[in-house]
Amino acid sequence: MTSAACSGEAAPANDRCQTLSSLVANDSPGGDAAAASRWGGAALLRPGVLAFTGSIGPTDIHAHHAVQIINATTALTVLDEHGYRHRGTKVVVPADAPHRIEVGAQEGTVVFLEPESAPGHAAHSRAVRSGWTVTPVLSSTRRRALAAVVDELIAHLAPATADNAIAVQHPAVSEALRLLPDLVAAGPVSGTELAGLVHLSASRLTHLFTEQVGIPLRRYVLWSRLRAAIVRVQAGDDLTGAAHGAGFADSAHLTRTTREMFGLPPSVLSRHVSWDLDSG
Hints:
280 residues; Arc Repressor Mutant, subunit A; 7-stranded mixed beta sheet; alpha+beta; disordered N terminus; Jelly Rolls
């Protein structure tokens, strides 16, 4: 991995900068070995957000549910399903849009946003309305923590979301967030059951949760399962053990989820990746 992929305070040497192998949808040309040689860096996960900083490599054609925002130090090229090349240092790929990275960049940031969140919806709408190549939406990650860059992006895309983050949270929502980790680990989560545990109707909890947390309860549970799987992989579990421990039916279910959400294979969960599992 190049030194450029590991520059800045956000990635201390030999810690945050581990190889992020196969950060691609269907394996880049040349297979996993080629992908591993071109992609490398550190990652952050929080509900509704997956972010990566480092070197960006090419991918095969794929689509994912998350909105993808790429900010690179040099121009990259993203090819869409119609054969149009979007070239620039800032590219936003809308949700569920088939595409591939044709030319990557030595250094950059990739942020996947839940499209049902306020910032994700704003980014998706902007790309559909104004095109995939946009004016800067991310500042450089050099000498900056990845979490700070993500916070800046969210504030830029949806200022009201950032303002709401400091509002007083409804006690039922706080209690639901406290209960969810154990419920997620135990298996399927019923919104009706959770609402009963926090003494609200299911419709009221669903409304409050989406309003105050920023993404629907159902999607929050899915992101929580992904986080739990990563925690278990980091602790030494294989993908099958991580999947079961995170409440997925099996490793195939985990694989489908990572590909549908981000276009990424489960190898992105590698214990060799330095993850910031931000719960905020």
